[in-house]
Design brief:
Elements lengths: L9 H11 L3 E3 H6 L4 H10 L2 E3 L4 E4 L5 H13 L4 E2 L1 H8 L9 E4 L11 E3 L10 E4 L2 E4 L1 H8 L5 H13 L5 H8 L7 H8 L15 H12 L6 E8 L2 E9 L4 E6 L1 H4 L2 H16 L3 E6 H6 L1 H13 L2
Parallel strand pairs: 5-6, 11-12
Antiparallel strand pairs: 1-3, 2-3, 4-5, 7-8, 9-10, 10-11
Helix pairs in contact: 5-6, 6-8, 7-9, 7-10
């Protein structure tokens, strides 16, 4: 988001800058490219620059998309501004909600409030708590989880943690480090949610779907042995991958999400997999989204009984 002064045709320079910044630029950057305030005003009147937040513009048209709006908010807030909270969660893919207004952490809260931008007064960010995603500075997944714990209920916080696990962004140790820096609102509920993801000497399991991420902590919270996740097995020359496996008990649990198991071809393949596993001495169980939504305790109880039958 630099504003290094350039030479040559300013229109080309503005277009090139906007192309790298999701279609947006700041007044400061335009000045750095050689445009006077009068030239900026003239381009705004002519419709080649479209005001967004204070001191920021969309170049050529207003259809800048979510990332453009997020970056424009940071440009409006000045140096050191970082996307945070719900907006960071949206950018990182931790949830599919649209954060309005745009959430921002700024080094110093000063000046007039900017409409549709929400400044957050939180403990200062350390450099390791900031990353660049799609050219936009934002809080890391770990810092975002800590910040969001103060804003959402336990159910929503669980979903954020589950999505972080699926995206391989969940770092329990880093979250603990951030929480240790001082008292934080929401810290107790975040520690509660993370309890199922803690394991002495073991990393967060590799999960491939939200359904797996929903089931895994429920099993741990119920006191069941920790399963191995997405384990590769070779049986009679066939290479299979099992969602959740208790090898000692010879139990395999498959999670049936509609996005991957809802077609006739997937149904036939799943039955074939079950037969191969059972012929090799494994017992096979399945869990679906509907079951986990409507009767999560019953699903866990059935898997517990299957483990006890080993």
């Amino acid at each position: 988001m630099g504003d290094k002064r350039r030479t040559g045709n300013p229109n080309h320079a503005v277009s090139e800058l906007a192309e790298r910044q999701h279609g947006v630029v700041s007044r400061r950057q335009l000045r750095g490219l050689g445009l006077t305030d009068h030239a900026i005003t003239s381009r705004t009147a002519a419709g080649t620059l479209h005001p967004i937040f204070r001191g920021t513009f969309a170049v050529g048209h207003r259809a800048i998309g979510r990332k453009g709006r997020m970056l424009a908010a940071l440009l409006a807030c000045g140096d050191g501004a970082v996307l945070s909270h719900g907006s960071a969660a949206e950018l990182l893919g931790l949830w599919n909600k649209t954060a309005v207004p745009v959430d921002v952490i700024v080094p110093r809260r000063a000046g007039r409030k900017i409409e549709d931008v929400r400044w957050h007064r939180v403990p200062p960010l350390e450099p390791r708590e900031i990353e660049i995603r799609a050219g936009i500075p934002c809080t890391t997944a770990s810092r975002t989880l800590v910040d969001m714990a103060a804003r959402v209920g336990q159910k929503s916080l669980r979903r954020l943690v589950e999505q972080a696990a699926v995206l391989r962004m969940l770092d329990v140790g880093e979250v603990d480090r951030i929480l240790s820096r001082g008292r934080r609102r929401g810290a107790p509920q975040l520690r509660t949610v993370l309890s199922a993801w803690r394991s002495e000497g073991e990393k967060v399991p590799t999960l491939r779907s939200l359904l797996e991420a929903r089931l895994f902590p429920a099993l741990i919270e119920a006191g069941l042995p920790r399963p191995r996740c997405n384990v590769g097995l070779t049986i009679d020359g066939h290479r299979l991958e099992v969602d959740l496996l208790w090898k000692e008990q010879r139990l395999a649990i498959e999670t049936d999400g509609e996005e991957t198991h809802g077609t006739p071809a997937a149904f036939q393949h799943d039955r074939w997999r079950d037969q191969v596993l059972m012929a090799a001495g494994y017992r096979v169980g399945r869990a679906t989204w509907r079951q986990l939504d409507e009767e999560p305790s019953a699903v866990v109880a059935r898997i517990k009984r299957m483990l006890q039958m080993a």
